[in-house]
Automatic annotation (TrEMBL):
Residues 42-139 form the TonB C-terminal domain. Belongs to the TonB family. It is a single-pass membrane protein. SUPFAM superfamilies: TolA/TonB C-terminal domain (SSF74653). Transmembrane segments: none annotated. GO terms for biological process: protein transport; transmembrane transport. InterPro entries: TonB-dependent_transducer (IPR051045), TonB/TolA_C (IPR006260), TonB_C (IPR037682). It is found in: Cell inner membrane. This is TonB family C-terminal domain-containing protein. GO terms for cellular component: plasma membrane protein complex. Pfam families: TonB_C. Keywords: Cell inner membrane, Cell membrane, Membrane, Protein transport, Transmembrane, Transmembrane helix, Transport.
Length: 145
């Protein structure tokens, strides 16, 4: 009866067989959390300055008067490079996730994390707050003649 149900459901018996698991080498392992977290060059103050200098408030968000915090998850690999960045959590839209990704992907190398005295790749979640700038700091709209 069970065999008949599997055939009726379109599930071939070969798909139920145990499949070998490929081994993960220590170089591919992503450790989280780690004893020593990755750090931006110059520390948290430098990271804040970098974000303030490079984030361009999306025009669509400015026009819609939308603000909020976007969370981006990424990997800092063993060499300090950023990879696999993507937004997580609730989406704000209006170009905010795209802008956060743009700025994160152009970051300089970080100091990688360490576990047991060894350099390892690890995940980070970075909140990026979009606050509507005051009128004097908003981009000047060019008028056509």
């Amino acid at each position: 009866m069970f065999y008949f149900l599997l055939l009726a459901l379109g599930i071939p018996l070969s798909d139920t067989a145990v499949k070998p698991v490929t081994a993960i080498t220590p170089e591919e392992l992503i450790v989280c959390p780690v004893e020593e977290m990755p750090t931006f060059p110059g520390g948290e103050t430098a990271l804040k300055t970098y974000l303030e200098k490079n984030i361009v408030y999306p025009a669509a968000a400015l026009k819609a008067k939308v603000s909020g915090t976007v969370f981006i998850q990424f990997i800092v690999d063993k060499t300090g490079l950023i990879g696999e960045a993507h937004p997580v959590g609730s989406f704000k839209g209006y170009g905010m996730e795209a802008e956060a990704l743009r700025v994160i992907c152009m970051m300089p190398k970080w100091k990688p994390g360490k576990q047991g005295g060894m350099v390892v790749s690890t995940f980070l979640n970075l909140p990026i707050r979009f606050t509507i700038p005051p009128p004097e700091k908003q981009p000047i709209k060019k008028r056509s003649l």
